[in-house]
Amino acid sequence: METRCVKIKLKPGSLERVRAWAAELNRRPDEVLATLRDEQVIVEAVFLDSNSDGDYLIYFMKAVSFEHAYTVVQKSPHPIDAYHEQFKRDTWDGSKVLETLIDFDRIES
Fold first, then answer.
1. What are the residue ranges of helices labelled H in 40-108?
2. Residue 96's closest CA among 10, 3, 8?
3. Which end of the chain is more exposed for a tag (fewer CB within 10 A), N or C?
4. Residue 22 is inside which H or E element, if any?
5. What is the reported pTM?
6. 92-97: strand order across its sheet
7. Please, how many CA atoms are within 13 Å of residue 88, restricted to the half-sphere of its CB?
8. What confidence tens digit (pLDDT) does each residue in 43-67 have?
9. Please, what is the Cα angle at 1 between 71 and 76, to 5 degrees?
């Protein structure tokens, strides 16, 4: 199992779009969970961090393999994935994988 946390800088003025994206995903949990199953992603949580430097998304994920997840999402038949990819193009202004210092879980494989 792999763990990743990514800090994503948002384009200025995109908070309304970010909140609409989150609301849309929360309205479509069956589709989101179906794509996570296909990607073999076990946990995906996204947090918003706003400070004087700008707005950021903090993505926390656990997956069997991030390489596998990336390959699957590129060929995904799920409309929610196309929606998410467009959201990223519209709002993301860069990203940085954060250093993992501690990673424990009790998720049974």
1. 66-74, 79-91
2. 8
3. C
4. helix 15-27
5. 0.87
6. 41-51, 54-63, 2-10, 92-97
7. 10
8. 999 999 999 999 999 999 999 999 9
9. 20
